[in-house]
Q: What sequence folds into this?
């Protein structure tokens, strides 16, 4: 175990390399670029023995790792924003073929307007693909989730792709301390890849069949069932991780000061650090506030969320993505968790930080104040009041339940 | 039926589809008079259901034959003719399905 | 006959698939696998082939096969190839990517171009049926000029597809591929030879196979082979082969057929035979003639550059006569050396000797490029071969005798 | 926790400045976070980088709004930007300039000037590699980081002759501030 001051992307690249992928394919897109560059450098210098495929698009990046995974080797790819969207079709396909592909999404906003900064719209938009999604709060967690991602994906009870998400720039381009384990530690945690099925002339199987209405529905049910079962497996993998690496792993949810909290902030990714900072401040002023970090967004850990949030009076969700025409996906899914249940905290949903708008302590305080006054369905935080928004007479633009 | 993870399938299992039932108008009849075993009929069969091992031995496996007629069209010695389809198969074709030698060729 | 000492690979693509009767694509695939053998991994774009060969749980494939999406067969193949490289098996297992003309030249072209440019050791095969057959006969970039499809229909102000066929083989050549070829399902030996040749070369290869779609082209299911021969004999679909950018073979046309003969058999061109269609047919004839000129498809005698050899002409005439009454050609004496010149290649006639007699097999459908069943070569004395073949003495009675062999 | 903001133009190595300072803090057993305010900038565009250093793990990832210290890598930036924005009264602003600048009107903050580009030019022949000299000035002016930590960071990130030249530039600037920097203070 070596502590190093690394850029987030370097931490990811080192973690990926320690997992010994045999085929890597990636297409450049900001802010993901530093990850494939680091890996290409390792391959070019013989530090990593892997086939590096310089594809002509993200669609092909995902397709190359699909083909390689089906041939029975461990694979890796990474992308951001439009690249993740271009992969969308292939991600559905990888999940449908139950291939244990691991990819990293360096979260970035979606065009138009073109914007290279961080939010989580790209990965959230892939929520229905059948890809397991894990969100990192800091660069240590991002690297640690990579090791776990391979274990989860390649577990024969799971056999689904896993996407590790980290906030673009905020994490990917930030230098901080990352604990890099030894190869021996990673090897003892992550055994060599044993494919369930593979393309092999010795046993010439067919992959990617066409399926009629009398069977297709069952394949979707199988993935849903596996997704639900995988929550337990993800937890087991995290326990194993703690045993071998000697530091905590939080692969489903993490609770911070929630034991007696009447108000709980819910978020994903790097903003959770800020939540914790604010909660410490507010607690020092006597407010019973806590934080729930959602690490695993798919599968959505309904039971864990219910148990953790049921005693709170207010649940305040701040998210960096939205379903245009409805509202924040996490808030709305969380509300559905509580539908018809005996405990009913008021769940307020806020959209913030889209396109790299800095989420600050003020953002969090505003959300808490508004939620405490009255439950909020969907509200955009930090909207500028000095901008004239053509076609909108009331720039506040909020709607309440 | 088992639904495998990822819908992975076993090789050559299409043989369970007896596509011979698609035939409506005509079926090939190998006359076995002038056949030179040139193999063109077998090489031109989209179903891959024509088998033979020498002159005047070629048969179309009507379990799969869709009756397209290319074998008759390509036969350089006119030893294959398309004849009107009979709904009940003649005895000789039934024998074919049980013939181990041809079966082994079909599953190679 | 194909040697019986080796395994019969004719059924690696199994019966029971659900292609239309007379499908040129299913036949092509079977011939490709027959040539390629078992040590391959195949990828497939979405399309007819994928649908009719892989209705779960029944697969027609007896080689490893993967279908992913419409546009990524080349990328998936690249992934397979990279995995074989990573595991040190790239020398043992060949990778074949497959698509229809849409999956290859339209939606899948970006991925294909990328795969070629990166130099993956992959043979990509386009089963060119000149339309989007799977979705109901829509126009693709490889649909030929004048073809009526559901999205380029002939009508009061339309003669069908207004654009010529995209020249994918030359686009492939522009990528610097070591091997590019075209073939037609009507020429199984040519197809076989080109698949084997392609697989013997390392690096990216491209093979485009003319593969009928009786449904989309609206032709009699029995004419799959005839039409796929006619398209070559008219010059509309030259059978070409390039190695390292050099054209190394172009199948000669013995007797040029007019495009009329080809177009007439297919409903997709039937509108051209109405009033005013002559001009459109003339344009298609011009495409064929341009191909003939560009690739030198006519043998010297047929183009009239050299006066026709009377012996050859007589021999040709004889094959059209019924086998029972062969005409008597002028008898000529051949030495073995002289006979060797008639090897059926590069526009030469194909002669073979049997028991002291010399026969002209140039026009026989069983001989292609001077070869019979890939084993027997023209320009030689085949007496010994015949004794081992499933032929009787009278087999050669159906072709013209053009001379005798000098001892 | 100490927060530092770096002003520079894209291409002037502000990220390297931030990364070296964070590495030095890490060498001292502190927690450090360095990150750029990235954009779609091309060479020459004004940009920022930020550093946070603390004895506790750092959870604040938003941009630095109230820096304890500011490093200005390019003196031409001061006419377009208020480099003292958000800096508390006891803050220090370190500017790379060979002359005393009159363009900054600090409220009460301390302005330290150092001819970092001249030093870099002299030592390395590269006036655009002023960041290590600026770090030497930072160490001298603020006392927040030890010189041996900065030297270790430079040697770790730039092993070889160029690293050693950077160490010399670092030390020259440090001595410059220690010996006569005080006369520039306003």
A:
């Amino acid at each position: 175990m070596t502590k190093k001051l690394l850029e987030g992307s370097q931490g990811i690249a080192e973690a990926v390399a320690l997992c010994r992928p045999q085929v890597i394919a990636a297409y450049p897109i900001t802010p993901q670029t530093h990850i494939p560059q680091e890996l290409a450098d390792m391959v070019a210098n013989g530090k990593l023995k892997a086939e590096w495929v310089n594809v002509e698009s993200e669609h092909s990046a995902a397709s190359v790792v699909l083909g390689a995974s089906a041939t029975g080797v461990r694979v890796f790819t990474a992308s951001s924003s439009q690249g993740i969207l271009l992969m969308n079709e292939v991600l559905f396909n990888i999940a449908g073929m139950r291939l244990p592909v691991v990819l990293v999404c360096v979260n970035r906003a979606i065009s138009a307007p073109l914007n290279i900064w961080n939010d989580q719209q790209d990965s959230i938009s892939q929520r229905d693909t059948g890809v397991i999604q894990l969100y990192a709060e800091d660069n240590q967690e991002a690297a640690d989730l990579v090791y776990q991602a391979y274990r989860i994906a390649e577990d024969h009870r799971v056999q689904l792709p896993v996407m590790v998400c980290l906030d673009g720039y905020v994490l990917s381009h930030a230098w901080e301390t990352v604990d890099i384990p030894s190869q021996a530690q990673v090897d003892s945690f992550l055994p060599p890849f044993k494919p369930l099925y593979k393309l092999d002339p010795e046993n010439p199987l067919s992959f990617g069949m066409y399926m009629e209405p009398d069977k297709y529905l069952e394949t979707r049910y199988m993935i849903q069932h596996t997704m639900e079962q995988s929550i337990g497996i993800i937890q087991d993998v995290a326990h194993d991780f703690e045993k071998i690496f000697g530091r905590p792993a939080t692969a489903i949810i993490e609770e911070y000061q929630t034991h007696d909290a009447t108000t709980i902030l819910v978020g994903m990714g790097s903003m959770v650090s800020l939540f914790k900072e604010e909660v410490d401040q507010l607690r020092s002023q006597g407010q019973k506030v806590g934080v729930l970090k959602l690490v695993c967004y798919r599968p959505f850990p309904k039971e864990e969320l219910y148990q953790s949030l049921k005693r709170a009076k207010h649940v305040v969700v701040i998210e960096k993505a939205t379903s245009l025409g409805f509202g924040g996906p996490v808030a709305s899914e969380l509300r559905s968790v509580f539908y018809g249940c005996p405990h009913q905290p008021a769940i307020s949903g806020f959209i913030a930080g889209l396109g790299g708008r800095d989420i600050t302590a003020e953002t969090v305080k505003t959300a808490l104040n508004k939620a405490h006054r009255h439950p909020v369905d969907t509200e955009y935080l930090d909207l500028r009041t000095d901008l004239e928004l053509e076609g909108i007479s009331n720039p506040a633009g909020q709607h309440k339940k | 039926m088992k639904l495998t993870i990822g819908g992975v399938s076993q090789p050559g299992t299409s043989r369970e589809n007896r596509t011979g039932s698609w035939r409506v108008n005509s079926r090939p009849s190998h006359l076995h008079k002038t056949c030179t075993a040139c193999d063109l009929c077998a090489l031109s069969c989209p179903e891959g259901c024509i088998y033979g091992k020498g002159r005047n031995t070629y048969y179309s496996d009507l379990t799969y034959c869709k009756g397209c007629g290319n074998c008759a069209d390509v036969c350089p010695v006119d030893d294959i003719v398309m004849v009107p389809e009979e709904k009940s198969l003649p005895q000789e074709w039934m024998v074919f399905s049980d013939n181990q030698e041809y079966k082994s060729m079909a599953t190679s | 006959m194909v040697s019986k000492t080796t395994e019969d690979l004719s059924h690696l693509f199994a019966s029971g698939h659900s292609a239309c009767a007379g499908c040129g694509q299913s036949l092509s695939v079977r011939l490709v696998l027959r040539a390629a053998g078992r040590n391959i991994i195949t990828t497939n774009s979405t399309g007819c082939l994928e649908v009719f060969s892989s209705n779960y749980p029944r697969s027609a494939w007896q080689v490893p096969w993967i279908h992913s999406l419409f546009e990524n067969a080349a990328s998936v193949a690249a992934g397979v190839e990279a995995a074989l490289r990573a595991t040190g098996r790239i020398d043992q297992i060949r990778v074949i990517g497959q698509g229809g003309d849409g999956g290859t030249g339209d939606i899948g072209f970006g991925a294909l171009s990328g795969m070629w440019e990166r130099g993956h050791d992959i043979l990509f095969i386009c089963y060119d049926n000149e339309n989007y057959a799977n979705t109901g006969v829509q126009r693709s970039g490889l649909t030929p000029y004048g073809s009526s499809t559901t999205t380029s229909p002939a009508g009061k102000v339309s003669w069908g597809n207004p654009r010529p066929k995209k020249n994918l083989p030359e686009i492939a050549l522009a990528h610097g591929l070591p091997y590019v070829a075209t073939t037609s399902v009507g020429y199984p030996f040519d197809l076989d030879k080109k698949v084997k040749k392609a697989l013997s070369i390392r690096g990216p290869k491209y093979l485009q196979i003319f593969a009928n779609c009786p449904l989309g082209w609206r032709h009699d299911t029995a004419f799959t082979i005839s039409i796929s021969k006619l398209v070559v004999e008219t010059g509309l679909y030259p059978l070409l082969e390039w190695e390292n950018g050099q054209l190394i073979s172009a199948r000669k046309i013995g007797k040029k057929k007019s495009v009329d003969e080809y177009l007439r058999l297919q409903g997709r061109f039937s509108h051209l035979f109405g009033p005013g269609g002559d001009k459109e047919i003339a344009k298609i004839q011009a495409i064929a003639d341009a191909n003939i000129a560009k690739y030198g498809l006519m043998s010297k005698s047929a183009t009239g550059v050299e006066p026709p050899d009377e012996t050859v002409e007589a021999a040709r005439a004889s094959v059209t006569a019924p086998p029972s009454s062969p005409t008597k050609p002028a008898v000529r004496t051949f030495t073995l050396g002289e006979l060797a010149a008639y090897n059926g290649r590069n526009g030469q006639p194909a002669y073979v000797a049997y028991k002291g007699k010399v026969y002209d097999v140039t026009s026989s459908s069983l001989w292609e490029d001077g070869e019979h069943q890939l084993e027997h070569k023209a320009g030689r004395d085949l007496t010994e071969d015949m004794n081992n073949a499933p032929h009787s003495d009278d087999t050669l009675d159906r072709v013209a005798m053009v001379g005798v062999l000098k001892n | 926790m100490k927060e530092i903001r770096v002003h520079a133009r894209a291409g002037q190595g502000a990220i390297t400045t931030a990364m070296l300072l964070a590495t030095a803090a890490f060498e001292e057993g502190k927690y450090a976070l360095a990150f750029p305010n990235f954009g779609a900038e091309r060479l020459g565009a004004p940009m920022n980088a930020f550093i946070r250093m603390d004895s506790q793990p750092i959870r604040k990832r938003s941009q630095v709004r109230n820096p304890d210290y500011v490093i200005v890598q390019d003196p031409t930036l001061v006419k377009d930007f208020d480099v003292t924005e958000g800096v508390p009264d006891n803050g220090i602003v370190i500017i790379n300039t060979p002359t005393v600048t009159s363009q900054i009107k600090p409220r009460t903050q301390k302005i330290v000037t150092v001819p970092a580009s001249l030093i870099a030019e002299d030592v390395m022949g590269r006036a655009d590699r002023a960041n290590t000299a600026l770090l030497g000035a930072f160490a001298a002016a603020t006392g927040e980081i030890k010189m041996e930590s900065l030297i270790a960071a430079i040697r770790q990130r730039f092993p070889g002759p160029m690293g050693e030249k950077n160490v010399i530039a670092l030390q020259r600037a440090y001595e410059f501030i220690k010996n006569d920097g005080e006369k520039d203070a306003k």
About this structure: The longest helix of chain C spans residues 277-295. The CA atoms of residues 9 and 34 of chain C lie 5 Å apart. The longest strand of chain C covers residues 94-100.
